[in-house]
Amino acid sequence: MERLAKELSRRTPPSSASAEPDSVPRAALRAAPRATIATVGNATRLMAVDTAAADAGLEPGLTLADARARVPALDAVEADPDGDRRALEALAEWTGRYTPLVALDAPGGTSGLVLDITGCAHLFGGEQALLADLTGRLEGRGLTVQAAVADTPAAARAVARTASGTIVPPGGNARAVAGLPVATLDAEPETVSMLERLGLKRIGQLVDMPPSTLAARFGSGLLTRLDRALGRADEPLSPLRPPPVFVVERVFAEPIRLVEDIERVARALGEGLAEPLSRHGQGARRLALTLFRIDNKAFRIAVGLSRASRDPARLAGLLIERLGTFDQDLDTGEGIERVRLAAEAVEPLQAAQTTAGDLAGESRAEDAEALARLADRLTARLGHTRVVRLVRHESHIPELAVTARPAVAGVAAGAAMWPQRAAHCDPGPERGPGRAPERPLRLLDRPEPIEAIAEVPDGPPVRFRWRRVLRAVARIEGPERIAPEWWAPKLFNGEAEALTRDYFRVEDEEGRRYWVYRAGLYDRETVTPRWYLHGLFG
Questions:
Q1: Nearest to 413 by CA among 315, 272, 305
Q2: What SS3 state is found at 475?
Q3: What Rg, from alpha-carbon coordinates, does the chain have?
Q4: Of the candidates 211, 148, 137, which has an alpha carbon nearest to the alpha carbon of residue 180?
């Protein structure tokens, strides 16, 4: 578990608030103790200190003036909590090379990571080898690491702070934490202070006390933390990313740097992923290609599929299409040492056979598949939010009857495949008596106000002005009445729309056809009905 509060990021150069550069040698300035600062109330205080600053006697909470009095060469930089979290998330992405279950951990004001390595340690030569590899890589990048392995996150967290590098044997939590300070349970500071005043300074002293006494005196929170450290209670974890369903990866003896090499590896991994998908009768709906750099960083590329697939060429093609958008920004750094392809969302995919007599059905299936492939490629190239489809929405108001959704629905597990007609979608009868009302070819994004003249207030228009042009009505059909949705009022032009609409299909003297409506029933809902143009016919 890495504690960012004890090791500051070296993102920024020494600040101007440090000792004067001219009076301090450059090498000494680089090695100067560092701290992050923030204004708390009316004072500037230390928020976190690195190892050198801690060794010099500085600690979070000190005012900057007091800290400078003790350590004149202190390099102080502004605290950046958002930047620290992004850095921690980037590190969590990289530690995914050890296990897919990585969670952010931030108890008691510290920052770190929790890795569930169940079933993964043997891939790295055992728990001790995995821990040594993890800590060695991070320390090689100048980070101070405190890490331990135990049955529960609470026990590992407590042991790491006092005996980094420890491997707690299975079932040995109670013995491992018995001699640790009660502060390592991450209880409230007031609770820790009270325990220490009562002489209860070690976790082992709490183990033999009746649980009811602890809960009554110190609250249930302390008892919960104690049970988690001893392995008597589970501690829920929220992984940074959901665990993948199927995973294949390639590890290289020598790092690769060229995009062409990454593309070749993506094709090979696509073929490797198709085999377990086929064996389990599944198709991938969401893929993630993760590139692990040797400098403790990772680059993740995710794509979704509108229809489940296990075709290796299609899977690899989408990943390569997506890689093409990162050609300039894909920084391979000092080289890629590991590439992982994961199917993060899958669904059943059974082979289907079309009968010889069902040529029309086969043609429709081919058209649907071609459209799905096009949507996948466009989404991979342009982005998830830039390729959309229209989905029916339960509303009588025309502009609310459809909503735009991402064309590739496969980004969410269990989403319906596309294209797919809704079960309740009825195209209506053919044109003729009793046919469904005709709809305009183009529906405006928002109805546009028009000036209309009608013979009677609740009658059809005989002339109307739209976009400064006066149009005389030659033919008219209607009205078609749409009542307001009283149960879910929508905002229209900044006001709650609760007026009845009477729609008319009108044709002017030049043969142009329009879809207009009158908002409000005369003398019942309003005394001045308003007119709008909502669509254009072909």
A1: 305
A2: strand
A3: 33
A4: 148
Residues 51, 56, 61: CA angle, nearest 5 degrees: 80
Q: pTM of the predicted model, to two decimals?
A: 0.69
Residue 230, exposed/middle/buried by CB under 10 A (0-12, 13-18, 19+)? buried
* pLDDT 10s digits, 400-416: 888 888 888 644 434 55
Quick: pLDDT tens for 129-143: 999 999 999 888 878
Q: What is the pLDDT of residue 354?
A: 53
DSSP state of 27: H
Element (H, E) at 248: strand 246-256
Q: How far is CA 398 from the centre of its chain?
A: 33
What are 429-456's pLDDT values in tens digits?
444 555 667 889 898 988 999 999 998 8
Q: Label residue 235 exposed, middle or buried (CB < 10 Å: 0-12, 13-18, 19+).
A: middle
Q: Longest Cα pair distance anywhere in the chain, in angstroms? A: 97
Q: How far apart are the first and last CA of the chain?
A: 65
Q: How far apart are CA 32 and CA 50, in angstroms?
A: 10
Instruction: Report how far residue 120's alpha carbon sits from residue 130's, in angstroms, rounded to the nearest whole number.
Output: 9
d(CA 19, CA 350) in angstroms, rounded, equals 70
| Model pLDDT, residue 362 | 60
Burial class (CB in 10 A: 0-12, 13-18, 19+), 178: middle
pLDDT score of 7 more than 70: no
Predicted confidence at residue 275, as pLDDT, reads 94
Q: Answer positive or negative: Cα dihedral of 425, 430, 434, 435.
A: positive
Query: Between helices 220-230 and 211-218, what is the axis angle to 10°?
Result: 130
pLDDT surpassing 70 at residue 417: no
- 11-44 burial, b if ≥16 CB within 10 A, otherwise e? eeebeeebbeeeebeeeebeebbbbbbeeeeeeb
Q: Once rounded to an integer, what is the mean pLDDT over residues 309-328?
A: 85
Select from 111, 116, 113, 118 the least CA-distant residue to 92.
113
Most confident of 16-20, 318-322, 327-331: 318-322
Give the closest residue to 389 by CA, choosing from 427, 424, 422, 343. 422
Query: pLDDT confidence of 106, banded at 50, 70, 90?
Result: low
Question: Do 158 and 229 contact (CB within 8 A), yes or no?
Answer: yes
Helix (H) or strand (E) holding 451: strand 442-454
Mean per-residue pLDDT, 155-184: 92
Spatial separation of the C-alpha atoms in residues 29 and 15, rounded to whole Å: 10
Q: Is 274 exposed, middle or buried (0-12, 13-18, 19+ CB in 10 A)?
A: buried
Mean pLDDT score across all residues of the chain: 82
Handedness of CA 71, 72, 75, 76 (dihedral sign): positive
Task: Find out whether 272 and 264 touch, Cβ atoms under 8 Å.
Answer: no
Please list the residues that pair with 345 across neighbouring strands. 286
**Residue 373, φ and ψ in degrees, nearest 5:** -65, -40
- Return the higher-pLDDT residue of 235 and 107: 235
